[in-house]
Fold Aminotransferase class I/II-fold pyridoxal phosphate-dependent enzyme.
Amino acid sequence: MSETKIYLSSPHMGGNEQSFVNEAFDTNWIAPLGPNVAGFEKDLESYLGNGNHVAALSSGTAALHLALILLGVGKGDEVICQSMTFSASANPIVYQGATPVFVDSEPETWNICPNHLEEAIKDRIAKGKKPKAIIAVHLYGMPYKVEEIRKISEKYEIPIVEDSAEALGSSYKGQKCGTFGDISILSFNGNKIITTSGGGALVSRNLKHKEKAIFLATQARDAAPHYQHSEIGYNYRLSNISAGIGRGQMQVLDKHVALRRKMHEFYRDIFKKKNGVTVFAEPNSDYFSNHWLSCILVDTAICGFTSEEIRLAMAENNIECRPLWKPMHLQPVFTNAPYYGGKVAEKLFNIGLCLPSGSNLISEEKVKINDVLIPFIDK
Ligand SMILES: *Cc1c(COP(=O)(O)O)cnc(C)c1O
């Protein structure tokens, strides 16, 4: 067993984070407001472009929750959500007392399938309830079918909440992920492509969305010298310390994207000699993935081994791998939620595996990974 564990995706500091944090200490801005919060928001706004406004929040989950509130999702409503995703995409639907309606993936981007999405919308409308929003996710950094999903959203006049938690730095036809939703969200959790230790953001071209998100995230205080509230508020703002880390991380975001894409190339190189193992890749040049996580599909009938056998061999060598996200419609907590689709997401879950993908993996670690994988290639 090697002494140091190789993680799937671990924090990677660029170098200047600490000086922004020190500045916060020196000026005593140890609070959920201050120059780093405003600075981090500006950094994100200029990175995303397209006239987008950013509200920095305590997590991506908080951003999703506020997005649903801004779109008027409430008790008894239905919200469509990509089934294959992390539970944080779906949980805020339930926070609002609404019901998630899950939709299968398509096999090209692994994201929400346009055909099943439209089928779900038509059927929910026929049953008497038009869904209030569509939550679409760019899984592992791969953009979803942006144009097809937008077309359906416009046809039925249902807004899109774009979950871009895994896709900062990805783009579709040159436009950045995080700018395709009516409201979009980002995450800066410890395992994401950049981190603030914990944090998130709400993104919208509508300045009112930003202002209302900040209002709700700071306990919904009315304009009065005393504490007066006409609405229920939340404590969801990002701290000035965390935002300082974020400002340092923004300086190295593009470098991190390049390094993650190199990890993807590293795995493509290893597996190109093996029939039955495919590395998850962009369908065509319209798509640009940050390759947050490099993933493979293992077709046991062709290659003679399973993804679980790879995972266990890696674990024996202190290398972390993980199955793909287990679809939400297969989760015990969501057994009663409606589901539209077939078995695409389920199959991906059964044969897929995420491999160590960090931008901070050194060549020694890549050699270790390679050494565990080579016997599988030779099988
Ligand atoms: C990480 C993640 C989130 C939640 O972000 P947090 O900052 O951890 O709350 C939401 N959706 C997806 C797809 C994620 O990967």
